């Protein structure tokens, strides 16, 4: 199920409650897709950043190759690439501090270039407040994510987004539509101002430099609107994008998974699968057998909730995929591969 999704979609978001194994599942899906010959970009938007810890290597804000799969060395007998190149996984941990600084530096450069010098002091003051203002972090992260998805669609077969815990992710997914609408409002205001400017120019009262400023402001706004609109369209297109919810069979994660499924449905985001991670074995002692029985009860709650929420969906509710509790310290490529093998075995 998960590997079929990885082969059919261009973008997979992987999210859920903190500590349930989102990063492990996201990385394992990426690795298996790479072993089938795909080029995959994994992007972490989680400020906690477990991606580098999982792959046991430092990662940063630019793509770093964590796995290169030589052509012909794929697992599962995947078809050879037409271009003869092997698959691989590149990874990015979006750096919140760098992203905010880069974002504000870009805004500062644009504003100082476009506004008269007498207003530069106010610009600096505004940006100092903006650095700590609510929403600055989310806006900057969204800008960087939009860049990664846009570049990823050109250069990779699949982009896997390893998201922050639920609340952050929902705000992030709602932002593209909100910011697209906000930018369109700004553009409409610019259009009205430009029409007024044209009328003034007709009377000989406006300088050519002012016209250049208007044109550049418009280009900045159009570029920003295009980027957010692209991300909004990609996120809302079930043919290209799906969301995979990861949880464990315990009361709070199950409740949060059902709430996340409902919220994503209200945002128009396709949820194709819910992964129930770390299922206890039934035949490894009484303690784990008891846990298994308790998990079975939570699994029934999860399936009933998903079925109840599937009525409004044309294609029904998401599939449930169970992954077993695995032994050992699952880090580095061998650890990710062990999770990938479990995903492949789950079908």
From TrEMBL:
Any one Gene Ontology molecular-function term assigned to this protein's record: ATP binding
Gene3D superfamilies xref list: P-loop containing nucleotide triphosphate hydrolases
InterPro entries for the chain: ArsA/GET3_ATPase-like, ATPase_ArsA/GET3, P-loop_NTPase
Domain ArsA/GET3 Anion-transporting ATPase-like: 10-300
Family: Belongs to the arsA ATPase family.
NCBIfam families, per the entry: GET3_arsA_TRC40 (TIGR00345)
Protein name, entry field: Arsenite-transporting ATPase
Source organism of this protein record: Mumia flava
